User: Fold this.
Amino acid sequence: MILVPSFCMAISGQATDANLTGHVVDKKTNEHLGYVNIFLKGTQLASQTDITGHFFLKNLPLGKQVIEVSFVGYKTMQKEIYLLPGKTLELNFEIEQDVFELSSVLISTSRSQTIKLASPNLVSMLTSELFAQTNSTTLAQGLSFQPGLRVETNCQNCGYQQVRINGLDGTYSQLLIDGRSLMSSLTSVYGIEQIPSNMIDRVEVMRGGGTALAGANAIGGTVNVITKEPLRNSGEAAHTTTFIGGKSADMNTSFNLSLVSDDHKSGAYVFSSFRNRESYDADKDGYSEIGLLNGKTIGMRAYYRPSNQSKLSVEYHNMGEFRRGGDSLDLAPHNANLAEQLEHEINGGGVRYDLFSKDYKHKININLAGQHAKRKSYFGANQHAGGYGRTLDKVLSLGGQYIYNLDNLIFMPAEITAGVDYNYNYLHDEIKAYNKDLIQKIYVSTAYFQNEWKNDKFSMLLGARLDKHNLLSGAILSPRGNFRYTANENFIFRATYSQGFRAPQAYNEDLHISLAGGRPVLIELSPDLKAEKSQSVSLSVDMYRDFGQVKTNLLIEGFVTDIDNLFVLKEKGSDNFGNTIMERINASGAMVKGINFEARIVPIANLEFQAGMTIQRSKYNEAHQWSDNEDVPKENRLFRSPNHYAYLTSSYRPTKSLMLAVSGTYTGSMLVQHLEGVILQDIAVNTPSFFDLNLNLSYDIIISKSITTQLNTGIQNIFNAYQNDFDKGASRDANYIYGPSLPRSFNLGFKILL
Assistant:
């Protein structure tokens, strides 16, 4: 335990000397379980077992209390105790495995705790264990292993990536950090690659519009990154080197430190991550397909509990990144034949205050968050001296929420949630030589309300959000509804309906300048651009069944999204500076519909298989003329939206120390734009399909009761399924890129846990 200064002890309340000690073991194997979460219900007090599975809590509130233990892969368990002053009570737990994590706690539905089994929304969860098993050092690398999700790279030069949900472009997905939206148009360009996995506790994914709390632009879905919270004294150091194509090194080093006071009233989690990636030239033409990258992330999350029913949380992060692609990477960018160079410096953070009654009937939270980002950039070809630019981006988010739990509302227990949010974003993006000077100010005021009737059998959530966007003349009402029916422990049915919109503003890809034919490709907004509106419906059935010792889960989810006034890009021609202009206009609309399948099989306790597949169709209501060359055929299909894609993960632990993990993704054929430059005229290309298979092994070495070392190695993209028709030279279309983000690569690493 760390020492706590006397002034901290003074403000934490009078010592009761009522203590609790015990251990947590696996009910079947009697193995002690480390890092299990221990909660005192009705308070903000929490801790974890140590590596040996033991815990100790001191100076607890007196009288009748409920202790709850939860752990990934195990059923949550509660026990009632009675605490007396000056007494130490022993309390031990034997918990059962829950391989499908049905008792896992989610917060994405209403920003309050809900177990997965009872959630009205279909929420998928990516744990920190999955990131480790798949050797995912960033958020982007781990997101592919969920049905309906696909992460793709969109530029050969800078390598920016986006996550697509249910067939829709990345701008239809909302990325949250601890339930708050800090990803602006600028920071979302490279955001999913800048979030290191060592700061992630888990990721909750809601496909579709979800609840009234999800943003109006969360048409495809919501990705909520839950960061790690300090629950015990611990530390971690890790390093992984991936050899891209067997030669270019991508080195990731991370450090974590968690400190918790003796009375668990305060704690801090400090994390850092450093990345250094060499460029990779796949076709040996002297131009990179994977750019050079140097990045760092440093941050902290801390809390203080003024009372047992209140909590003050503070978060801060600093992200710095340099990336460069093209040729002659050792020269200044204006001395190269082709160059994209970006330097980011991002500072952000937030404060949150939570207060709730001891009976959990009332809960209030107030939050304030902000982010400041600067970008220095160069986009140019043929040794253009004027391709330098600067971008300034500021984000402010303020919100408050009230939750009231009723024992009965008309016919069933209910939870009412109401809140308000205010979001401000200032953006100034300037490249003088290209006559680009974008100043955008966004103000969005939001009020939302929802009520969820729920019991073990049913839940029905009805809600709406009212958004006033300064670029729109009036407020827009977006209703949301969800229904759950649990027929029995083996069958859960869910239905969701939502509406949303996107305002006529600059989005992330508008701030990225691609290069084709040696000329910058700029995106402009049509003066007649209207708001885009959508409706989304999904139906799902979640089935669980045991065949002897074999446990199985099958999920089938159908979805339909109808979009009016769809935003599309149409080539407009060239401006007076020789830049290719793509104009964002409204098409008549589009429809995306499909089915997600996911299956999980656990034949024995230490072996698990999981796989998912999406079958979909994405089409414009009317054929879209995307090129300024009228000889280029119109297209009915949405670009970069394959009809089939899938993933798989499998883990096997033959011994307690050894873990073998297999993972992979399948991407079916899709339609990709290929602009003239190297080729004579624009063309829409039907890409081949790809299967990307990975293998990772890890071995734990226990040095002592408090120190564990892990060694890991693996191969990514074993079959080297990689694009083989990249454009070559300075006139290439940098956006003509598809398929797996890496060729066959090898990784080695280690981790030290304290």
Observations:
- Helices lie at 6-11, 128-133, 139-142, 191-194.
- The longest helix spans residues 6-11.
- The chain is about 5% helix and 60% strand.
